[in-house]
Design a protein that fits this description.
By secondary structure, the protein is an alpha+beta fold. The chain has two domains: about 40 residues; about 160 residues, Lipid/polyisoprenoid-binding, YceI-like (Lipocalin, Beta Barrel). The protein has two helices and eleven strands. Strands 1-2-3-5-6-7-8-11 form an eight-stranded antiparallel barrel. The radius of gyration is 26 Å and the shape is elongated.
Length: about 210
């Protein structure tokens, strides 16, 4: 009995030792993978924006109606560029005055239905990054991606450096939505049409990025 126990004891102990080593190695591997993934992501950020244009009858938009919306976005530092992303059709854009379904819902006249996103890409080399505690203003070309199409926009901005982060004090750009819709036409309900030029303004935002 004792002989059997003595013979098996080292094997059991060895098995436990191997299991412990395996768990330790697996845990360390997972941690290293997490660190690598975080490093690959570079940085990020988030913020909110407003959307504005008008609607009305004819080329002069008679009987002008304000079209407004509030949205939110995230930012990702992808090495040589910054990518701003908003899941507009999944709750990250809310329209005013009951226009939600017509804009980003099942009855969207733009085609912005569930799963659709809007992405703005800006090359970092085109931006001016302020020194510690200072502000910088300027304009930079960007590429807006929506509904499978891309269009060029110009982003005007003022940014302040604050503790290693960049606070967006103001930023805005105009986009022509007809460059993204399938038929290239204005969105109209009966005789009332929405003006193609939409202004996107960032009301607050923070970006973590390397210069």
């Amino acid at each position: 009995m004792n002989i059997k126990h003595n013979v098996n004891a080292p094997a059991v102990s060895g098995s436990r030792s191997i299991v412990r080593r395996f768990v330790a190695v697996a845990t360390m591997g997972a941690l290293m993978l997490g660190v690598a993934s975080a490093s690959a992501d570079g940085g990020g950020g988030k913020g909110s924006f407003t959307l504005t244009t008008i609607a009305g009858v004819g080329d002069g938009y008679t009987g002008k109606l304000d079209v407004k919306g509030d949205g939110k976005f995230t930012v990702k530092d992808e090495g040589d560029k910054l990518v701003f992303l908003s899941n507009v059709a999944d709750g990250e854009l809310n329209m005013k005055d009951g226009r939600q379904k017509h804009t980003v819902g099942d009855d969207s006249k733009l085609g912005l239905k569930k799963g659709q996103k809007v992405k703005l890409v800006i090359e970092k080399s085109k931006l001016t990054f302020p020194e510690a505690g200072k502000e910088a203003s300027g304009s930079a070309p960007g590429k807006l991606h929506m509904l499978g199409k891309a269009s060029d926009v110009t982003v005007k901005y003022t940014v302040k450096e604050d503790g290693g982060k960049y606070v967006i004090k103001s930023a805005s750009f105009d986009v022509d939505y007809t460059k993204h819709v399938a038929d290239g036409k204005k969105v109209c309900l009966m005789l009332v049409c929405v003006k193609p030029v939409v202004t996107i303004s960032i009301t607050n935002g923070v970006v973590e990025a390397k210069k």
